[in-house]
Amino acid sequence: FGTGEMSGVFVKDKLCIGDICSVANFVAATEMSDEPFSFVPFDGILGLALELMSESPRFNLIDAMIAQKVLRQDLFSVYFGAEDGEDSEITFGEYKTSRMASPLFWANVSVPGYWQVEMKDISIKGKEQGLCKPHCQVAVDTGTSLLAGPTDVIEALDSKLNVKEDCSNMHELPMLGFIVSGKVLNLRPADYVDQGEDGCSTSFMTLDVPPPKGPLFIFGDPFLRKYYTVYDRKNMRVGFAAATHKNPKHTGVLVDLSK
Question: Which has the higher per-residue pLDDT, 23 or 209?
Answer without folding.
Answer: 23
